[in-house]
Q: What sequence folds into this?
């Protein structure tokens, strides 16, 4: 039988919050199958030593003043549906209520809309720092692996500009901007794909 406190302590030392979260879920499931009470998991995506989410270049295709919307789906938009969910937290684990998240990405052919606002939109995290974006999987374009651009800003805080990546992409190995710590945790859902990422802001 697993010594739970020790196991949980080791989870907190895992390098990735997603690894920790997955491991906590596994522990909870294994406890449930043993007939024990389902343990309360520790706050899975927070730790006092959380590193801030790294910044990356905005690239040439950012357009200011995107519309406020949580869904970038429009009639006629082609591509694999994708939902991205997560939280915005401080390094000390506090949710950043009202954090601004401004997303922009290529369409499924790898093209950006540099005239209008197709596949561009901003939203604000809720009181728990949670956000949810409905979109499609972006296509690839020369020199780049699959990615989504985002700017994240706490109210009155500094702007974090970064990019999110997809696991298992062949081009991840050749794109010099790719970083493993900006990978979405991906899963397949009934109506498309599902990705999760937690942003940790330094300010
Ligand atoms: Fe790009």
A:
């Amino acid at each position: 039988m697993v010594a739970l406190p020790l196991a949980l302590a080791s989870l907190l030392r895992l390098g990735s919050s997603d690894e920790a979260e997955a491991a906590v879920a596994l522990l909870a499931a294994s406890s449930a199958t043993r007939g024990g009470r389902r343990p309360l998991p520790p706050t899975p995506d927070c730790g006092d030593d959380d590193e801030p989410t790294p910044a990356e270049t905005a690239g040439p295709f950012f357009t200011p003043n995107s519309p406020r919307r949580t869904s970038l789906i429009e009639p006629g938009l082609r591509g694999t549906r994708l939902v991205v969910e997560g939280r915005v937290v401080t390094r000390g684990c506090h949710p950043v209520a009202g954090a601004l998240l401004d997303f922009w990405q290529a369409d499924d052919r790898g093209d950006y809309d540099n005239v209008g606002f197709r596949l561009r939109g901003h939203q604000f995290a809720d009181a728990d720092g949670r956000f949810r974006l409905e979109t499609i999987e972006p296509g690839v374009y020369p020199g780049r692996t699959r990615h989504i651009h985002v700017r994240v800003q706490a109210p009155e805080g500094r702007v974090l500009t970064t990019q999110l990546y997809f696991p298992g992409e062949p081009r991840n190995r050749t794109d010099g901007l790719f970083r493993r710590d900006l990978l979405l945790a991906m899963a397949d859902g009934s109506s498309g794909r599902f990705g999760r990422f937690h942003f940790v802001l330094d300010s």
